[in-house]
Design a protein that fits this description.
This protein is mainly alpha-helical and 103 residues long. It is 38% helix and 0% strand. It contains three helices and no strands. The radius of gyration is 33 Å and the shape is flat. The mean pLDDT is 74.
């Protein structure tokens, strides 16, 4: 009796849960899809390249945290060797560089 109830409950659960798998519409039969030849072809564009460039340069795209082009900063006065030496000294005095997955 328990085996029968278990089997029937498994079958019922499978039928209830698989109902969403068949919820999609049927695919159209061959030849029923819209044909590429029946679609209207777009005409030629009347916008010139110079107009597009002028519009693109007049407004900056909004992307990321800094939508406006940032001014370039001058190179620092320290050399690479000086920066590396300062980093080594800081690590020697207990400073830990935040790097890796656990930082």
């Amino acid at each position: 009796m328990i085996r029968t109830n278990t089997t029937l409950s498994v079958i019922a659960a499978a039928l209830l849960l698989s109902g969403t798998a068949f919820a999609a519409d049927l695919q159209p039969a061959a030849g029923e899809a819209p044909f590429a030849l029946s679609q209207a072809t777009p005409g030629t564009s009347v916008v010139q390249r110079a107009d597009v460039r002028a519009a693109a340069t007049s407004q900056a795209p909004v992307a990321g945290n800094l939508p406006v082009a940032q001014p370039r900063t001058e190179a620092g006065a320290l050399t690479r060797a000086q920066v590396r030496e300062a980093t080594r000294d800081a690590i020697a005095h207990g400073y830990r560089v935040a790097s890796g997955n656990l930082s």
